[in-house]
Amino acid sequence: MGELVTSQVGVKGGWQLARTPNGITLRDIYRAVEGGTLFPLHGNTPNPRCPVGSSIQSTLIGHFEEAQLALEKDLARTTVADLVQQIRAHAR
Fold first, then answer.
1. Residue 11's domain spans which residues?
2. Count of domains in the chain?
3. Each residue of 31-59: pLDDT tens digit?
4. What CATH number did the domain enclosing 66 receive?
5. What dihedral do alpha carbons 16, 17, 21, 22 form, nearest 10°?
6. What's the rounded Cα separation, in Å, for the pair 32 and 80?
7. What average pLDDT does this structure show over 64-68?
8. pTM for this prediction
9. Cβ contacts of residue 79 below 8 Å, gap of 6+?
């Protein structure tokens, strides 16, 4: 994924999109800002002798991965340009 914004210091400084609004999706922004998983598993290893702990992570990981993919697939359908259009429509 390429840069989303560029910046310039000084009198005429500020932030600017690095790509056109049509070229940036909400998924791009989500990945740039969040950078992690939607549902991270607990950092400590569960007790392997525990009936739940011994299998909970392997049981949950597939569900969490599917949820992450569904979220990103949905976010990929909306661009910054789409948001601008929706905001303009609501402002009327």
1. 5-91
2. 1
3. 998 877 778 887 788 888 998 888 888 88
4. 1.10.10.10
5. 150
6. 14
7. 92
8. 0.76
9. 21, 22, 23, 24, 25, 26
